[in-house]
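HUMAN: Can I see a protein plus its fold?

ASSISTANT:
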Amino acid sequence: MFKTLRFAAVAATATLLAAPALAQSSPVVGTWATAIDVQGQKIEAELTFSQASGGYAVAIKDGPMPGAPADAPPMESKISDLVVDGSKFTFKRALNTPQGAMNLTYTGTVDGNNLTGEIGSDFGPIALTGTRK
C-alpha cells in the first residue's frame, strides 16, 4: 500500500512540475538562470527544460521574492500547455500567490546561451531574460 501511495505522490508531483510536449532535439533543453523586473525589483528563477517521455518538461525554481522572509516556502504553481518548437517555447503557469491566483503565459526564444522572452500577466507583459547555466 505504501508503494502505491508513494508512486501516486511522485506521479502527482511530476504532473505539477512537468507538462510533456512533442520532443525533438532543441536548444531550449537545459537549465536557465532567468530574471524579470517588476516595478524596479529584480526577481530571479531557474527554469529547467528537459526531454521526458517522448516530449518536453519544464520545472521552475523561484528565487526569493523581494520583501519575503528568507525562509518563506516557494509559491505553489502548476505548469501546462508546454510547447517547444526548435528554439522557441511557450507554456502556461497557474501561480498561487499570497494575493491570490495568478495566471501567467511564458513565451520565449533561445539563441545560443541566451534566452529572451515575455511573461504575459494580468498586469501586462513582463520581459524575461536568461543565460544558460
Notes: Strands lie at 30-38, 41-52, 55-62, 77-85, 88-97, 100-111, 114-121, 124-132.
